[in-house]
Amino acid sequence: MRVDVVSIFPEYLAPLDLSLIGRARARGVLQLAVHDLRTWTHDVHRTVDDTPYGGGPGMVMRPEPWGEALDALAPAQAPPPRLLVPSPAGARFTQAMAHELAAEEHLLFACGRYEGIDQRVLDHAATRMPVTEVSLGDYVLFGGEVAVLVILESVTRLLPGVLGNAGSLDEESHAHGLLEAPVYTKPPSWRGHDVPEILRSGDHGRIARWRRDEALRRTAERRPDMVAALGDLDRWDRAALE
Ligand SMILES: Nc1cc(-c2ccc3ccn(Cc4ccccn4)c3c2)[nH]n1
Fold this sequence. Notes:
Elements: E1 2-7, H1 19-26, E2 31-36, E3 49-50, E4 60-61, H2 63-73, E5 82-92, H3 95-102, E6 106-110, H4 119-125, E7 131-135, H5 145-156, H6 167-171, E8 189-190, E9 193-194, H7 204-222, H8 224-228, H9 235-241
Parallel strand pairs: 1-2, 1-6, 5-6, 5-7
Antiparallel strand pairs: 3-4, 8-9
Helix pairs in contact: 2-4, 3-5, 7-9
The structure holds 5-[1-(pyridin-2-ylmethyl)indol-6-yl]-1~{H}-pyrazol-3-amine.
């Protein structure tokens, strides 16, 4: 997968060199390039923003640098990338969207700042590539960079070979539509708190049932919306929720 990120703060994306994402890049699973939007400015002050038409607080990102950046990174003669624009007004980012993005050949992230990017940049881009505005949640950030870090981490871990134990992908939370069960490791007793006996029994059938019950119980307690979306439950699952 190829990923291009455009930002006026490219150093914000430095964590992408670390850990799993860094290894995915080193193994060629992910080709990632971060670009400074000011590369596509031509004035002495390298201006990327201007005052908003219609008045109001703050500044808006000018269309010209973005237009040239997208021309350079999504050339007409190549298959178009999917343009992702983090925004408070975007579609909510979910694990389902992470899976969708992990199947793309080329992702192009536009990180806005100030009060956002001139709308015409997105409108023009949409004439030649798929454009998705994406929100992390109902809170407001200073810009899109943090959202790109979150999105890229969730997408990269779905790429083939990135997670050592592929099984953990299947069992992870939000994969089955449930929150995960609690996890434990040694020592068996710690500050008066013991590991649930079942987990040390070696009975893998009962352990799987216990984990499913705990996942259902926690999801019902903390995210009833997720339980409602589960569809039909078998009698064991229903018993766990009683
Ligand atoms: N889930 C999200 C995404 C964002 C986000 C993403 C990109 C930008 C570019 C600028 N801002 C600041 C800003 C503040 C107020 C209204 C518009 N934009 C961003 C905020 N905040 N929360």
